[in-house]
Write a structure and sequence with these properties.
Blueprint (H helix, E strand, L loop, with lengths): L5 E6 L24 H21 L3 E6 L16 E3 L4 E4 L13 H10 L4 E4 H5 L8 H4 E4 L4 E5 L6 H11 L2 E5 L2 E4 L2 E4 L3 H4 E3 L3 E4 L7 H13 L3 E4 L2 H5 L6 E4 L5 E6 H6 L2 H8 L3 E5 L2 H7 L8 E2 L8
Parallel strand pairs: 1-2, 4-5, 7-8, 12-13, 15-16
Antiparallel strand pairs: 1-17, 3-4, 6-7, 9-10, 11-12, 14-15
């Protein structure tokens, strides 16, 4: 089982609507009626409730507090700037929005190096960010760690060169494609793969309609067949309700759980939920403000930790 029960989360203290990311994150919703000091408090409350629910379900959480002086409105989404892997490697990623680059915190990286069995730091950000080429971690990529496959929907935030570099470094097969959805009657690229797709141990949740190229769609279906994944196909409306933005973890008893927002949970059909429950327990929490203003959901809030803890 290529799942973990150890995760990194960042508790937000200065959350606000990020106009830099809204350029191509069409899931962000802005309203002039809301006071953002009030929104920030609601977001912190949602985070705390989500964290408590995860801990009650046997997930070990390494939690850091956002640093308000950094002015990082999206710090609650750490999976975009860092990932860890069973070989002891830590990867840092090039980010599209300049104000998100400040999320890459030296104290967190050093914490991982001290507390876990660490082998190398691969700083993709330093190689590609100054070339305006981006790869936003496990937002841009959905990893099938068991079968060593990277699935990636190409977009302004998921570029081919850093993507290929990552795959070379980790020795994973790359399956890239394009995925789009209509917003205000215009077809737009989906900014992150993990909005429309989630790979689990025994099944895959994916919006197949968003993949317009028949060859790319068939290649994906062939890969899912070869890796024995049951397909749970979700609609465009379910994508907007973050049904693709879910993550399979395991608890402290080594049982699989699927983590999602309550909004996503309510959007899955009874049949889909029954299929999921054949494989794992569903764990959900309300994340409405984070999803509405941040344009990301439960999966985006979690950076899995696959490093082994140092035993003193």
């Amino acid at each position: 089982m290529s799942l973990t029960n150890k995760i990194l989360m960042i508790r937000p203290v200065s959350f606000f609507y990020n106009s830099e990311t809204a350029i191509n994150n069409h899931y962000q919703q802005k309203t002039d009626l809301e006071d953002f000091s009030s929104v920030s408090k609601k977001v912190t409350s949602e985070f705390d409730q989500f964290k408590n629910i995860l801990e009650r379900n046997g997930v070990a959480i390494c939690s850091f507090e956002d640093i308000s002086d950094l002015e990082t409105p999206d710090s609650v989404f750490p999976n975009n700037w860092i990932s860890t892997h069973r070989d002891g490697s830590i990867f840092l990623y090039p980010m599209f929005a300049k104000n998100r680059r400040r999320e890459r915190r030296k104290d967190i990286i050093e914490y991982f190096m001290r507390q876990f069995q660490y082998s190398r730091l691969v700083d993709i950000a330093s190689l590609y960010e100054n070339k305006n080429e981006y790869l936003e971690g496990t937002g841009s990529m959905v990893l099938d760690r068991s079968n060593k496959i990277v699935y990636a929907a190409l977009s302004e935030r998921t570029n081919e060169n850093p993507l290929s570099y990552f795959c070379e470094q980790i020795n994973f097969e790359l399956i890239s494609f394009t995925s789009s959805q209509k917003f205000n009657e215009k077809e737009k690229l989906i900014y992150h793969t993990n909005v429309m797709m989630s790979i689990c141990e025994n099944f895959v949740i994916i919006c197949l309609d968003s993949i317009k190229n028949e060859f790319e769609r068939m290649k994906l279906l062939d890969s899912f067949n070869k890796t024995n994944k049951q397909i749970i196909d979700i609609s465009y409306n379910q994508v907007k309700n973050f049904c693709g933005n879910v993550l399979e973890l395991k608890n402290d008893k080594n049982n699989a759980i699927l983590v999602m927002s309550t909004r996503a949970y309510n959007s899955f059909s009874v049949k889909q939920k029954n299929l999921i429950n054949n494989f794992c327990k569903i764990v959900h929490a309300p994340l409405n403000n984070i999803e509405n203003y941040g344009g990301g959901g439960a999966r985006c809030m979690i950076a899995e930790i696959f490093l082994e803890t140092i035993k003193y």
